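This section describes the prediction task in plain terms. A model, or a person checking by hand, is given the sequence of a single protein chain and must write out its three-dimensional structure as a string of tokens. No templates, partner chains or ligands are provided. The sample shown here is typical of the held-out split.
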Amino acid sequence: MTGEAAFRAGLLDPRQAVPTGLTGPDDDIAGRYAVYRNNVTVALIEALASAFPVVERLVGEAFFHAMAREFVRVHPPESPVMALYGSRFPGWIASFPPVAALPYLPEVAAIEQARRESYHAADAAPLAPEALAARSPEAMAALRPRPHPSARWVRCRHPSLAIWARNSTRSDLAKSPAGEVLICRPQAEVLISAAPLGTAETLAALAAGASLAEAMPTGADHGALFAALFAAGALILRGDNR
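The expected answer:
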């Protein structure tokens, strides 16, 4: 292990010895390194708390910080850009035994992460319903729009959107059932809503290049799907659509 690699590894693992070759203004190299190590860990924990405020509220500050400490030790930042640090947190929570009795918690974390990703995604002009008004049903079926760059979708087996809403500022979503969640930022504001069954499947298919006819699931309420996608501004036209 190189000196730089040893320095990085030791920052998040207190069991690691102080890297060799460090120098300082006095002989307390171990003490200075310990302070720096603690500051790095605290900063990462605070970044997670800022990114997942509802998760922190649900489990309590002390427990969240202990849980986050475990996470940062196995998942250090992969990029110097900290805006989206913690993208693996929802999946990691799902395998963290101390919260096994809270099966909705990973889904709440996934909603928070999706909301954060949506906020930082690229801008694009959403497809307006009026742009389709003059098209025949056949022409519409053949269209191949793609999801808006900020569109995110989460499948929830539990009423996780309602749990998230009751612990944030969205009381209008506090009775949302288990199902699908659609998140998008077509303009300046991130929109989040309960979505009809089939929304996630439709958007995933469109992202893979399917046409509208191919993407819409059989048996789904296509009218409700269109309404949800347009209300969220979740579609844009590809350059090859006419």
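For orientation: The beta strands are 146-147, 152-156, 179-184, 191-195, 235-236.
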